[in-house]
Amino acid sequence: MCDIFDYTLLPGGGAALVRAYGDNPVLTLPEALPGPGGCTLPLVQLGGYCFAETVRDQPRGEVLRCVRGGDGALRPVPPESVPAEELHPAAGRFLEEVALPAALREIGNCAFYNCRALRRLTAGSGPLAVGSDVFLNCFDLAEVALYARPDAATGLPAIVNNISGNLRAVFQPAGPEGKVCAAFRYPEYWEDIEETPAHILLHTFSGQGYHYRQCFRDGRLLTGEYDAVFAQGHGGDDPVYMALLCLDRLRWPWQLDEKAAGLYRAFLAQQGGGAAAALIRAQDREGLQALLDLKALDGPALAAALRAAQRAGDAQAAALVADAEYRARAAAPKRRRRYDFDF
What range defines the domain where residue 305 resides? Predict the structure, then answer.
């Protein structure tokens, strides 16, 4: 089945997506949609509930429809041209990954409501306004890839502040085929609200994830403030996820100073074995190699990582760890043997 998009025209120009249909759980939204008179309109808005299992918001204005063929070209068609029973919504539990258009500037309320299998988003640079409960029940959403520099204004602040679970942001300025230049993790946190007898609401936060999510100004990431959060303590956070946070900062040290790098290295020396096991479970061999190249794991941690690879039946990961273990032993200072001849 070809991808089908329903949309409306916005008064100020541009288009708002109402619904998407298709049989591929990995969906790339078009940058622009066909408009009247043969013109094209940038896709700047996702309508409310557009990827939810049920659309509850009524579209404003006439709904247009276009079909994306195998060559990627978009062709406008009458809305009634495809029977409703033949349409398969790219929505809800079916959806796994969505590439947002670079021109997108607004995501409506509950746009991804109950997309429980959604695990990854990609987005471009530029500001982004986000409605309420946009990612409600998106429990598997773990990564956002941004095709921008880390010092550019992006929609990352709006996204991370709508997700309280663990979330990783990856910056690839050159696009999907380009290299990663930085990665930042946002740990999970919990918010508790208590009402006092005087009817005053007290907000308390468990975990440092909330503080990491405040390290922005005008849509730009403040790396110095981000790194400073780690120094404030992380006893309430998952140590394995925090070790992966340290790894990402050391692997791509965007604007990383020596003091923060030292704290990250010290934490990896303590928790690197758990990070290695997590990377092995995720079959992230590039990440595992990056961790081993930092030489932050001691002998017991390497031995634990090797056992984890063997339990997972991952021969390639086991070979990487065994090689690192061999190199660590070879680089260790040799103990001088002493002989005592006492007759």
Answer: 238-330
Count how many domains the chain has.
2
CATH of the domain at 3: 3.80.10.10
Note whether residue 226 is domain-resident.
no
Query: pLDDT tens per residue, the chain (343 residues)?
Result: 689 999 999 998 899 999 999 999 999 999 999 998 889 999 999 999 999 998 888 888 899 999 998 889 999 999 888 888 889 999 999 999 999 999 999 999 999 999 999 999 999 999 999 999 999 999 999 999 999 999 999 999 999 999 999 999 999 999 999 999 999 999 999 877 777 777 677 666 678 999 999 999 999 999 999 999 999 988 888 999 999 999 999 999 999 999 999 999 999 999 999 999 999 999 999 999 999 999 999 999 999 999 999 999 999 999 999 999 999 888 766 666 565 656 5
The answer on 248 and 120 residing in a single domain is no
Backbone angles phi, psi at 149, to 5 degrees: -75, 150
Measured in degrees and rounded to the nearest 5, phi and psi for residue 28 equal -110, 115
Query: In a 3-state reduction of DSSP, which class is residue 278?
Result: helix
Q: What's the whole-model pTM score?
A: 0.90
Calculate helix-pair angle for 258-281, 285-293, nearest 10 degrees.
140
| CA-derived radius of gyration, the chain | 25
Does residue 229 sit within a domain?
Answer: no
Q: Return left, alpha or beta for 199; rule: phi > 0 is left, psi -120 to 50 is alpha, else beta.
A: left
Q: 242 and 135 in one domain? A: no
Note whether residue 106 is domain-resident: yes
